[in-house]
Specification:
0% strand; globular; 71% helix; 191 residues; Arp2/3 complex 21 kDa subunit ARPC3; mainly alpha
Amino acid sequence: MGLPIDPIPSFEFELWPKSSKAIVSSVLIAVAFTACAQVAERVDTALTGGSVLIFGNINLFTWLVIGCCLFGMTGALIVANINPIVANLTATGPLAPIWFIENTINGIIIVAVLRLFGVGEKEITFEKFLIAGLAGFPGLFPELFAIILIWGGTIDFFLIACVIIFISVGIGTAIGFFITRSIVRSEVLWR
């Protein structure tokens, strides 16, 4: 028996949607992600020197899981790669160059797990959605290895960073679940 949280209802899901609605909606999600990221990533840089992205990863997974769930691989790739362009152009933080790879890996993993759980065909429970988001955590390993290689972090620091980032991924995914559920319930994308 799961948590007493209403699931995301079933809806029309395509793995590679090509409609202008899907592309424009994915770009709008990416723009929201990027706008929030400009604040979140700078807060992380101020708090940790950009080495542990607490708020950045909460923000990333909030918006990425929405794009992945609603728009499949199209949403995953668009949402994953617009922010890194802006982040590199504005010198958001020292890890910005690896975000293209990380975000893309995260998106592919999340879409694959959501597809495995039958997104669109069946209701998606909070627990399954959370598992899908947390499954993207290994996509953040380039960032974690950069912490050790570039900043000379110790294994203790690496393990602490893993725990902090894992928790932030979970928080972002949980927020994304409630936003996604609200969008699906509103049926605004299928009118």
